[in-house]
């Protein structure tokens, strides 16, 4: 339902709203003057996928304590300095926010689950206080102008499973503490200036983008990385080597089908396969004759062996019955007793 392009006038008189969602309703207006002051009781605000303009106050006694979604609009100004121990979700993607990420964001929003600031004009570094967000699951800072090195401490971010900082100007090496990101599944670091060898923890990711950096060394193998067979996730790193790349590492095994001798030996290989198949069928026939008729023929000819053989089967059957009565029957009685 479209209610735009103007912001609804009737909403300006509502002072006791707790929940407000106006996603994709065609608003291309600016928010009314005093909107942020009048929303004193809001804990949930979602205005995504409109064309709303104007500036969001940098520092304000925001009452939005749980959920704030301003994605896909035309908001300007600095990243708002929110302060709420109850805030779970902050979505500011695809706007025109500028300035830096607040240095103490991790302290102001200690229980944040999702932080999405992608596709803005944010500069500066990723503040180290991000590393204290123990509950953070999604951190998306893609397509900004962030610079500097990655924060050194990721040890406490055990819940983080999505990390996207691609299309920035991040430099330096991947911090060794990132190996403690035990839940990490999606890692996108493309289009930066990262350097150094790839750490082994990357093998646990199911989605990976390392393209267009200055990374070096061998691509890790094993675990999840066996399914990441797209070479484009490593392109633009001329110092990387591995089986998926044109540049092979020293000691990498080569596919015999791609070697110069591969085509010349194809006929010999086919002859070997035909000979192997014939040997297999001959062995199967001989094994059937020796195994089946060797046992069954003996039982048919020798009466004493036949009697001993079936007597053994009878004894085994009795042992199984006794085991069931001793072990299983008491358990069944116990279950019936508990139900009654």
TrEMBL record:
It comes from the Eukaryota. It holds the Pfam family LRR_1. Keywords: Leucine-rich repeat, Membrane, Repeat, Transmembrane, Transmembrane helix. The chain crosses the membrane at residues 278-301. InterPro entries: Leu-rich_rpt, LRR_dom_sf. PANTHER family: OS10G0469600 PROTEIN (PTHR48065), OS11G0213300 PROTEIN (PTHR48065:SF11). This is Uncharacterized protein.
